[in-house]
Amino acid sequence: MSFPVGRRGQLLAAVGVFVVGCPGAVAQVRPAAGQTDSVAAPVLIPTEPQTLDPQSPMAALPGLGVDWPDLAKAPTEPVAAPSAATLTGEVRYSYRVDGIDSVASTLLRERFDQLSTLRANDGQPANAAQLDRRAREDATLLTSLLKADGYYDARVATRVEPNAVRPLVVLDVDPGVLYTFSGVTLTGLTAAGDKKALLRDAFRLRAGDPVNSDSVVAGQTALTTTITDKGFPFAVIADPAIVVDRAARTATLDLAVVPGAERRFGHVVMMSGQQVFDADHVQEIARFTPGNLYDASALVDLRRALIQTGLVSTVKVEPVEGKTPGTVDIAVGVERAPPHTIAGEIGYGTGEGARSEVSWTHRNLFPPEGGLTLRGVLGTQEQLASVIFRRNNFKGRDRILTGSITASNLKRNAYQARTFGLAASLERQTNIFFQKKWTWSLGGELLASDERDVIVSTGAPRRRTYFIGALPSTLTYDGSDDLLNPSRGFRLSGRFSPELSLQGNVFGYSRVQLDASTYRSVAKGTVLAGRIRMGTIVGAPRDAIAPSRRFYAGGGASVRGYGYQDIGPRDPNNDPIGGRSLSEFSIEARVKAFGNFGIVPFFDGGNIYTSALPSFTGMRYGAGIGVRYYTNFGPIRIDVGTPVNPVKGDPRVAVYVSLGQAF
């Protein structure tokens, strides 16, 4: 037989002698905890055997304060829901934590939610034993978390409140008094000389601060980072010694620091093993030079830069005693990664037709970091073969030297061009590992291009050969917070390319293009983005400029909803002819909808003009909606657009797929 216990569970410890189960046995209980002796398990002392009648009433228990139920009478009042001690079967439950609203930090709540057994199984059926175990586990967890926050006297009691729908598990928290530091000592810091005050400030903790484990770890980490960034490569920082005085509800902290001697950078030395780079090339990549004050963060940066080359699988960078007194050399060891890459893609675009591409790359055929790529494209409207030489980190960090030889046959609605070209460039690049504010490029091109278009006045086909020399250059400022998925900031870029063309006679012209975009977070998960683009070609009439060098608009990176390069003036065959100037804009709202998916409504506009300067008239507009799937390396974009004011030949719907946002 069982009966409700609830809060009366403690009552049993206060009863000196009571009957357990039947009148034939007596339990003897020794003094409770807090008295001289500890509590022992009850000892059953058998008495003279008796014959028991199961139908007879049970003997009274004087002094207990609770009468046994009369089984002969039908109950007239509802029976109370069972407590956790007497639940039968499995029931769903809910839980609540009381008493921590005034003391719990956001971090404590997050940790409890992540580790709570009750939360992990919330809504799942549980029996009495499971409820009791989960409640006790969470009580122990809360006690540990509160002590880590400085509440060393924290106590957590558990109870179960019956409920008509589901039982409620309650954790009653008594946090106690917050302990504080009565003293914080950093032994040995005097040896750091004039940097003593700087290092002491880095640790942050002072007398009177709470005895918080997170603050202690953060202070130790900040001190370790600061001391190695300020010229002490071999500094040793011991584990903090914390002594708690429970009577005074305070603690003392002592941290032993051995700074060692201040050092300056020496030279890069290579460890024995696989040699992918020599020491001179690693020194070109590094952001430190011999003689600079030692800075451990420069080693972290160098390790990331070496991995980013793609030529190594693992990197080891560590300080060692320098050959010159007062210096520290940097030892670098690497393991070679597979040097070859084979890549391919197959796709289809409404404006570009079916297209397949394959490439083979040896990333270090000409050490250091001199790669060779063979690339081929085969499609319904494009065929291409090229050989590309690329040297990364050329005479400096993130400088790329590129040379290429290309032969291509390109067919567009506006023209067909068979081109052979030589090109070279030197640029400072940005990437997802090291996003830069300023980037630039300087280059040169020599092209021989056989191009076919039509005479605009008659629509008759014609064929012309152009020999073109160009010196393209770009300058870009990136003030956004992310390379592939910006949520705030802005970007500005300009491109200038003076060109000479030989077709019948020699003439010159210049191509200029300006781009600007801005990003603003207007609500949680919502970013408004906008861009504008303007371009001009000055120095030659439109018809003299090779069709492949004119401006065009329309497509996924231009005005969505229209075919690739389809916007602008057209010839008698209704094909685009390009122009000498352009203007475009785009506005879109990037809304994080659910999980990793987002919705992006957009509105674009633009036009191409035959004059040297855009007139901003006759704009063509496109609107639509896109879907984004956000990955660790950037969003995957699918946009579906339609022309707002189409003309003959424009599609009803256009679809665009790419990696990264539209701009």
Summarize the entry for a quick read.
The protein is mainly beta and 663 residues long.
Question: What this model shows, in words?
Answer:
This protein is 13% helix and 43% strand. The protein has helices at residues 11-14, 106-115, 117-120, 128-148, 196-203, 213-229, 279-285, 296-308; strands at residues 17-19, 25-28, 43-46, 94-98, 155-161, 168-174, 180-187, 236-237, 241-245, 250-258, 264-270, 312-321, 327-336, 340-349, 353-366, 370-379, 382-391, 399-411, 416-428, 438-454, 461-470, 473-478, 489-503, 505-523, 526-538, 581-594, 597-609, 620-631, 634-643, 654-659. Helix 2 (106-115) runs antiparallel to helix 4 (128-148) and helix 5 packs antiparallel against helix 6 (213-229). 25% of the residues are buried.
Keywords for this entry:
Ubiquitin-like (UB roll), 5 domains, 8 helices, 17-stranded antiparallel β-sheet
Task: Record the SSE blueprint.
Blueprint: H1 11-14, E1 17-19, E2 25-28, E3 43-46, E4 94-98, H2 106-115, H3 117-120, H4 128-148, E5 155-161, E6 168-174, E7 180-187, H5 196-203, H6 213-229, E8 236-237, E9 241-245, E10 250-258, E11 264-270, H7 279-285, H8 296-308, E12 312-321, E13 327-336, E14 340-349, E15 353-366, E16 370-379, E17 382-391, E18 399-411, E19 416-428, E20 438-454, E21 461-470, E22 473-478, E23 489-503, E24 505-523, E25 526-538, E26 581-594, E27 597-609, E28 620-631, E29 634-643, E30 654-659
Parallel strand pairs: 4-6, 7-10, 11-13
Antiparallel strand pairs: 1-2, 2-3, 5-6, 8-10, 9-10, 12-13, 14-15, 15-16, 16-17, 17-18, 18-19, 19-20, 20-21, 20-22, 21-23, 22-23, 23-24, 24-25, 25-26, 26-27, 27-28, 28-29, 29-30
Helix pairs in contact: 2-4, 5-6
